[in-house]
């Protein structure tokens, strides 16, 4: 192939290309950093719309490929070690493993169905098709989007606990910010509503996959193993959903708020099937007359 | 050739988002960065910075970070490596290892700093994540480089020959 420009010309043009591309990236960053989850970035939507079908195929093919090679190694080992009987035994074990895997998946899907029926909320089942491409953040992509009725801000859960909320939306897929992300926030209570006063605010710690609950009054008694549930005050998650279990309590004094570390109930590192709750927090349109010191003459 | 490059970048970005589902630690292998470093070593600076921007933006679009931060860091990495190749011989496979390791460290540093500057920091520990990325990306990247050399060898050998002739001519002109 003929090189159209000399190396010298290319090197002379390179700084201008560098400057232009860096400025482009800076502009994109400034736009993206200003907008929060209420405004979508179309490039994300377009990129995920294009990539989502390939991600679904690659995730299913990858899982099948890993299983195939694992079975192949087992078959080869059996043939070397013993012969036909061990081969039959290995085949029987493979069928048993497949059966167990099917049973586990069946249990998981049954739990999802039971949760759907018991929760009272309309749900959209979804599968996780991709995880964050960067090692610095925790986000997942699911195979349901606007076409399936998913909307921005909707909570995502499993029967074991809350997972996160929808922060970006495409026609056939959606991005979920996990609760372990530092930018996420959940209103929670240790124990059950109407039975405890240990209210607090949860954010992700990122490290070790734990959550941190802050502003819990120092007068409340919290012990390891206590269940943490949502309060609904964050206007994202409905009240009463499991967040996780207390694993560490840092108490200073009765006058200082406690800091609590929580192990999320949902298996965030091994998510497969999730549910998007079609839940919108009820709006509290307080009448102006209820506010103190309001100038009632100004109407 | 451009089609091969586009295909490789697309494949790298797609695998980067998909492999984490199979086994979460696979996220520490930065496949788009490996592709950017490889093409930056081909001594075409303009091509390198464009590939860096495209790979970085594609990864950002499929990530929870700020759109443009990855593009910014990978563009810088591509430019620096492409500039380095005009001064230092980096054709030796052993020399590529520290180059790749340095690229991982620099890319991570710039990426995290940009997020902190724009008040959207990651909560992941910098030293731990960068260490894992450095080890995994360097090892796998070295193997991928061998594969890419075989896949794109005609172009690579032609450019190496051209660069060698240019260096020789420069030395000759300095002496005389």
Structural overview:
The complex is a heterodimer of chains A (299) and B (176). Chain A has 299 residues and is an alpha+beta fold. Among the domains of chain A are: 58-119; 123-178, Rod shape-determining protein MreC, domain 1 (Thrombin, subunit H, Beta Barrel), CATH 2.40.10; 186-276, Rod shape-determining protein MreC, domain 2 (Thrombin, subunit H, Beta Barrel). In chain A, 35% of the residues lie in helices and 24% in strands. Chain A is built from 3 helices and 12 strands; from the N terminus they run αααββββββββββββ. In chain A, the strands form 2 sheets. In chain A, strands 1-2-5-4-3-12 form a 6-stranded antiparallel β-barrel. In chain A, strands 6-7-8-11-10-9 form a 6-stranded antiparallel beta barrel. Chain B has 7 helices and no strands. Chain B has one domain. Classes of the chains: A alpha+beta (299), B mainly alpha (176). At the A-B interface, helix 1, helix 2 and strand 1 of A face helix 1, helix 3, helix 4, helix 5 and helix 6 of B.
The helicity of chain B comes to over 70%
Number of strands of chain B: 0
Number of domains of chain B: 1
- Helix tally of chain B equals 7
- Main pleated-sheet profile of chain B: none
Strand and helix order of chain A: HHHEEEEEEEEEEEE
Shape estimate of chain A: globular
Strand portion of chain A, in percent? 15-25%
Give the N-to-C terminal Cα separation of chain A: 77 Å
Provide the descriptors you would attach to this structure in a database record.
heterodimer; A: 299 residues; alpha+beta; Thrombin, subunit H; six-stranded antiparallel beta barrel; 24% strand; B: 176 residues; mainly alpha; 7 helices; 79% helix; globular
Entry summary:
The complex is a heterodimer of chains A (299) and B (176). Chain A is of the alpha+beta class and 299 residues long.
Give the SSE map:
The complex is a heterodimer of chains A (299) and B (176).
Chain A (H helix, E strand, L loop, with lengths): L6 H28 L7 H40 L2 H36 L3 E9 L7 E4 L12 E4 L2 E9 L4 E5 L7 E5 L8 E6 L6 E6 L10 E4 L11 E9 L7 E7 L8 E5 L22
Antiparallel strand pairs in A: 1-2, 1-12, 2-5, 3-4, 3-12, 4-5, 6-7, 6-9, 7-8, 8-11, 9-10, 10-11
Helix pairs in contact in A: 2-3
Chain B lengths: L1 H21 L8 H10 L4 H17 L7 H17 L7 H25 L8 H26 L1 H23 L1
Helix pairs in contact in B: 1-2, 1-3, 2-3, 2-4, 2-6, 3-4, 4-5, 5-6
